[in-house]
Design brief:
690 residues; alpha+beta; 7-stranded mixed beta sheet; 39% helix; globular; zinc
């Protein structure tokens, strides 16, 4: 037994499960005091919800723990806090208690408001489920250690005052009744039904689908299996009566939303005189997807630029499923540039994730904004940072399609624009590269004017990013671009013009219809249900489509690498032409590409060329090669500096080997085949320093 004064010496337990229960914890009994004889344990405060969910999933006594009472204290309010003093105090009680209504069945003419012999009296709407259960526990967020939670389990068994089981399979009186199961439907089922309603599935279809599922697994096994038509109708009514406008004042409406959805907010900074608005949103489902697909995978940062309907910046964090579809796993809304505030909200997000899984770590973090502080990202996620050029590529291509009518000129201008980004490979400055471009295409005055106004002020920043960061491949750009198009069509295009000032409408749309769209698509993929609706909710991206084009349908002349052709999969008599094949600035003459998008034909040719090494190294690979050659050809004379150079080259070789996996999966532009071997040969020529 331990004294309450010694609780900080107890080990902090963090079971390696998504949800865990009392059975996964080693308990210590308290000696003396008000909690004398109770079981106690320490867990990370971020895992309290996981413990509550795990306890509710008890196989013998399924339950639902409600908050019976809650108290909070502000930091600094106590000068000399007790060792078990709390910032937050929450008492959880099994929903089958503490009142007992089993023996109080009013007859006709009798007063139905009689209070039970024990407990606090009548709870409206809960009479039918009160069975006197005494199971309850207390959670204290420690005042001196806010990152820890003290669990005090006052009664671990689901028993009544007689000491006998009062619900679940151990209670003979409960067998064959709903008291065998949890008293309410689960959060997972509620999420499922609400998402189906948001995407337009009818009430009758939802009920029929649920009944078929119950029959498929052999009848009811949990309270979820008793879902009724009335339950679905109530949720449908809740959606119909919900509104984004919780207050006439937009700022107050945002604050109310944050209070009501607190568990879905990982960071909130109110918009005040000196502080900008920062709102980080991540639902439980998004957190699950980020842990599932982001671990040992890639996380991408998507910035919504240039929307006339957005007063505030909207940023999305994306993870990628096995089909390389981009799934939004968090949204950040800021009243200023997200790059200025990344140091504020990103640590909160990482803490939330690591609170669920301390081993979680991505392989790469992809950014599409040159203003982001990459050092903050490296420090937070402990991974390498890649640059994605989809914003630049898409902007330039759409500008060419708008201001230049000659297809051949478009092709050449697009190629030369790419050379500006990689001008450091031949030692020229950005100003020189831009000047050369403008001299060559001086007759294209409309595009030149567009380029000067929109891109010239920030071209130096993009060039510096290309020089210092590895560049992501076109496959990844295509997936991010696909998400961008869905965001525009399903969120931004639906916002009315007069919603410019309202952040609450954007929040509401993201967390209801848009969130449900991605949830439902994943549900179709994982279960195989609603296949007839797959085309309507399809997330298929050009990367995934390119993987299904056979190599035999790619036609390329190794003697003339100016263009390639890809046979149409719908009509074999049609072939599409890809110009600048294998380049980051390749484009196609298909209907999808000529409106500024990355198409499956461009991706397929890029994969084909890379696998056969039949085109010159991509521009990003040439930058790496040139940097390496400069390092190897200009060896310092000082032995100490030379030793440092050797270690630097060795580390560079190790980094390139680690990047090979990303390159093989299309997440990174590949290096030329001779780069790694050339580096190894030169390392062997270095003199040995003793």
């Amino acid at each position: 037994m331990a004294r309450m004064e010694d609780i900080l010496s107890l080990p902090v337990q963090d079971p390696p499960y998504a949800e865990f229960s009392a059975a996964h914890i080693n308990w210590v009994k308290v000696e003396g005091g008000r909690q004398g004889g109770d079981d106690i344990a320490l867990i990370p405060f971020s895992r309290v919800d996981d413990f509550v969910k795990g306890e509710s999933s008890n196989a013998e006594c399924p339950a639902s723990f409600r908050v019976e009472s809650r108290r909070k204290r502000p930091e600094g309010s106590v000068k000399k806090p007790r060792v078990d003093g709390y910032l937050e105090y929450t008492l959880y009680w099994c929903s089958y208690g503490p009142e007992d209504y089993r023996d109080i069945e009013p007859h006709i003419g009798e007063n139905s408001s009689i209070k039970p012999a024990s407990g606090k009296g009548s709870r409206p709407g809960r009479r039918h489920m009160m069975r006197g259960c005494l199971c309850h526990f207390t959670i204290k967020r420690l005042y001196t250690r806010p990152q820890l939670a003290l669990i005090i389990y006052n009664q671990r068994n689901h028993v009544d005052k007689t000491g006998g089981p009062c619900h679940g399979i151990l209670d003979q009186e409960a067998v064959g009744t709903r008291a065998m199961y949890a008293p309410r439907i689960s959060d997972e089922l509620r999420q499922k039904v609400m998402s189906m309603l948001h995407v337009g599935i009818s009430l009758d279809t939802i009920v029929q689908h649920h009944m078929e599922e119950v029959q498929r697994h052999g009848g009811p096994h949990s309270h979820d299996d008793f879902l009724t038509r009335n339950d679905v109708r109530n949720m449908e009514r809740l959606i119909r009566n919900s509104s984004h406008e919780l207050h006439s004042d937009g700022k107050c409406s945002v604050k109310i939303w944050v209070q009501r959805h607190n568990k879905h907010v990982f960071h909130f900074q109110e918009n005040s005189g000196s502080e900008n608005l920062i709102l980080g949103i991540q639902t439980d489902w998004q957190l699950q997807q980020m842990i599932r697909y982001g671990h040992s995978g890639s996380i991408a940062f998507h910035s919504a630029y240039g929307s006339k309907k957005l007063k505030h910046s909207l940023c999305s964090l994306l993870a990628f499923d096995p089909s390389q579809n981009a799934i939004p796993v968090a949204w950040i809304i800021c009243s200023s540039s997200p790059g200025e505030n990344i140091h504020k909200w990103m640590p909160s997000l990482v803490e939330r994730i690591r609170g669920k899984d301390t081993r979680w770590r991505p392989n790469a973090f992809i950014v599409d904004d040159p203003f982001l502080e990459t050092s903050v990202i490296r420090e937070a996620f402990k991974c390498r940072v890649l640059l994605c050029l989809w914003h630049v590529r898409r902007g330039w291509l759409k500008g060419l399609l708008k201001y230049c009518n000659n297809f051949d000129v478009q092709r050449e201008m697009f190629k030369h624009l790419g050379n500006i980004l990689y001008c450091t490979r031949n030692g020229s400055s950005t100003a020189e590269a831009v000047e050369d471009f403008m001299q060559i295409f001086i007759d294209q005055s409309a595009f030149i004017q567009y380029f000067k106004c929109k891109w010239l002020p920030k071209i130096e920043l993009w060039v510096n990013c290309v020089r210092t960061l590895p560049v992501a491949g076109q496959e990844l750009c295509a997936s991010i671009e696909s998400y961008h198009l869905r965001l525009k069509s399903r969120v931004l295009s639906l916002l009315p013009e007069n919603s410019y000032q309202r952040v609450d409408l954007l929040m509401h749309t993201l967390t209801t219809q848009f969130h449900s769209f991605y949830w439902f698509e994943q549900y179709i993929v994982e279960t195989g249900y609603f296949e007839n609706l797959r085309d309507r909710f399809s997330l298929i991206n050009p990367w995934y489509q390119a993987m299904h084009i056979p190599d035999i349908d790619v036609l390329i002349d190794e003697e003339n690498l100016q263009f390639a052709k890809v046979v149409s999969q719908a009509d074999s008599s049609v072939a599409y032409t890809i110009f600048n094949p294998g380049s980051e600035f390749a484009f196609c003459d298909c209907s999808w590409s000529v409106v500024g998008n990355i198409c499956k034909h461009v991706i397929k040719v890029a994969i084909f060329c890379r696998s056969r090494q039949i085109v010159r190294p991509l521009l990003s690979a040439q930058v790496y090669r040139q940097t390496l050659v400069n390092l190897l050809q200009n060896l310092p004379d000082d032995p100490l500096v030379l030793e440092h150079a050797i270690s630097h080259v060795t580390r560079l070789q190790q980094d390139i080997k680690k990047l090979e996996d990303l390159s093989n999966r299309g997440l990174l532009q590949p290096l030329s085949s001779g780069t790694s071997s050339m580096m190894a040969d030169n390392i062997q020529r270095f003199p040995q320093i003793n």
